[in-house]
Design goal:
single chain, alpha/beta, TIM Barrel, Immunoglobulin-like, 4-stranded antiparallel beta sheet, 8 helices
Length: 402
């Protein structure tokens, strides 16, 4: 048989051979809250069956200029068998050369964490992208202390174009690409951004081209930004507690959009970027954490399921006085409307809770007050006010403005 005929016979076989589809990325999550709190322990238990791996904030280190201060959240045992542990090193250490003396206190913490036998140790270090070679020096030293426990760096999209980046991650057992970050405005009145899906897509595409396994960290949280009288940022609040003895001139709010995130996850589940092993969500939903998605939202998003808003005004009649509440009957947090307009004729009315009242020619305007957290979680309601009608009515006529 001639070579030409052999090639002809083999061609249909090679032409029909298809590349095996890549698996959808696994679901992982960070536990940044203290695992000793009962509600956090309950959330860890609830995550079983949905979240493949948890990564618990174990220690935070801050460079004082002369030494490291260390805050340990995990000391004697793992909060969950097989979970990962995260070592956070703040920006205060960003100018260190990571000499042996500077590495030594960090190495001691890594040894202690490795002794707990976690699935891995992540190093979340605020390294300037111009000093990635120093980061590599630190990681080399810490991996020796971790022994057989994988040491995984957390990285940023802006680092991907640096020549030192591939060198940094090439000898690691993968890396985490954090595509969520708080982008603060220079002045009040400008938008605050936590998650941009276009940036995430672009970063995933660049990471896929490197041929090194990676995971992507995405946001579930929101924050409140305080501005001073000069229009500059004075505080960023990502938990419920606000600073004492401070009063902002104005506030801005942001929350990672669950619908945008769900659309991106659906895209990656269908056609994952090469090398993408998992999406790690920051942070695990915990009951009472109002600046974070609730559990029902999280479950939808990690499956790539978007949801339509279902926000209504409910009226409860008490002997002719109607109490008004805005209610979220959907599965995702929904922005509270700026205005709820009532067109039913009334004899008296007033605002309450999150809303104040103004009377206009087209009806009563219940206006959302400034400075309140503007998202309403699924299944929750918030008082808007009350009204009394001239005649008994079975329905209050209303509509919202965004």
């Amino acid at each position: 048989m001639s070579l030409r005929w052999l090639i002809f016979l083999l061609f249909p076989l090679t032409a029909c051979r298809k590349e095996a589809p890549r698996p959808a990325p696994a679901i992982e999550a960070y536990v940044w809250q203290s695992p000793s709190r009962p509600e956090v322990a309950a959330a860890i238990q609830q995550s079983h069956g949905t979240v493949a791996t948890l990564h618990v904030r174990a220690a935070e280190m801050r460079w004082t200029g002369q030494a490291f201060e260390t805050n340990r959240a995990v000391t004697s045992r793992l909060p969950k068998a097989g979970c990962g542990l995260v070592l956070r090193i703040g920006a205060s250490a960003s100018r260190l050369e990571w000499t042996p003396d500077q590495v030594a206190p960090v190495a001691a913490v890594v040894r202690e964490l490795a002794a707990l036998q976690p699935g891995e140790i992540q190093c979340d270090y605020d390294c300037p992208q111009s000093r990635l070679d120093r980061y590599g020096r630190l990681l080399d030293a810490l991996q020796k202390e971790a022994g057989a426990i994988p040491l995984v760096p957390t990285t940023l999209p802006s680092w991907l174009d640096e020549p030192a980046f591939k060198t940094l991650v090439a000898k690691r057992p993968g890396y985490v690409l954090q595509v969520h970050s708080l982008q603060l405005p220079k002045q009040a009145g400008q938008p605050v951004v936590i998650f941009d899906p276009a940036t995430a897509r672009s970063a995933a595409k660049k990471a896929a081209s490197l041929g090194i396994p990676f995971r992507i960290a995405m946001a579930t949280y929101g924050c409140e930004v305080w501005f001073g009288s000069d229009g500059k940022v004075m505080e960023v609040i990502s938990e419920d507690a606000a600073p004492l003895n401070k009063t902002p001139a104005s506030r801005a709010f942001t929350l990672a959009d669950p619908n945008e995130s769900a659309r991106l996850i659906r895209e990656w589940n269908t056609s994952p970027p090469a090398g993408l092993q998992a999406v790690i969500w920051y942070r695990l939903p915990v009951e009472g954490d109002r600046r974070n998605w609730p559990w029902v939202t999280f479950q939808h998003v990690v499956r790539g399921e978007a949801a339509a808003p279902n926000l209504v005004l409910e009226s409860t009649d008490h002997d002719g006085t109607h109490d008004l509440h805005i209610v979220n009957r959907g599965d995702f947090p929904v922005p509270l409307p700026t205005t709820a307009i009532i067109t039913t004729p009334v004899i008296s009315a007033d605002g309450a809770g999150a809303y104040r009242l103004e009377k206009h020619d087209d009806g009563l305007h219940y206006l959302r007050r400034e400075g309140i957290w503007p998202w309403l979680d699924p299944g929750k309601k918030i008082p808007a006010g009350w009204l009394r009608t001239r005649e008994p009515v079975s329905r209050i006529d209303w509509h919202f403005t965004p």
